[in-house]
Each structure stands twice: as structure tokens, then as C-alpha cells.
Amino acid sequence: MTLCCVVALAAPVTNALALTREARAARAKVVTTVTVTGPSVKCHQWGYMEVRVKLIKTEITVGKAKPEVLLKIAAVSWPIFPNHTARSIYINTQALPLLQGETLSIGAKSVAKLDQVETQQMVNISGASNVTVSWVASLQAALLQAEKP
Asked: Whole-prediction pTM value?
């Protein structure tokens, strides 16, 4: 009689353990490092701006659902920037490192997607407004590109 009670009580625990194992097996997490270059965005009359972003991309898949993509910004560079006049070079040697710092501080939050609200919170660099607008446009396009599986 006691043995029957023990077996009857142990059966639900065994089923719960089996369900837990199945749930863990159905969840997959893939972490990769990707480098994405945004489009060259015209910076008014001053030239073009292009942002290159190195991202830590985490894709979490649960079962057969669409994977959740998390992006964390690891590094930012600018392969193309307005530098056709001495004034452009002067302004951008000061403004671009500031924009880089702003972008990295946003990336430290491990955002799923950098939306317009977060990029509008970036500081507009005085004297480099056109560069800031072009930077944000190229950055948003690069992140949207990286988010695709």
C-alpha cells in the first residue's frame, strides 16, 4: 500500500521534469559578432557620412517561433565622412568622436532595437548638426540591417 502511494506521488514529478527538459531543448541561443556598414548618407552640401557598427548579436529562439534578436553595440567607426574642406575636417575631428561616444553609451544598454526615440536623445553637436543627422540615419539603417536574421 505504501509503495503504491509513493509511486503515485512520484509520477507527476517525473512528468514535470520531462516537460522542463523539453522546454530547455526547444530554446536555442546563438551569439555572434557582426560588422554592418550603414548606407552613405548625404550630409547636406558637405559630403557623405557612413557609419560602420560592430555588434554582438544574440538570437533567442523558443520552439518554432520567430527568433528574438538582441543587439549590443561593441564598436563604431566612420569609414566615410565629410572632409573636402579644411573646415569640415576641423569640425568632424571634434564632432565624430563625440557621436561615437553617444552611440556607445546607447549600446551599453543592450537594446533590442535602436528606435527613433533613442537616437533623437543623442546630443546634437553644435556646429555639426548636418553630420549628426546623417550619422543617425546611417546608424539606424545599419541596425535595421543587422537585426534581420
From this structure: 0.73
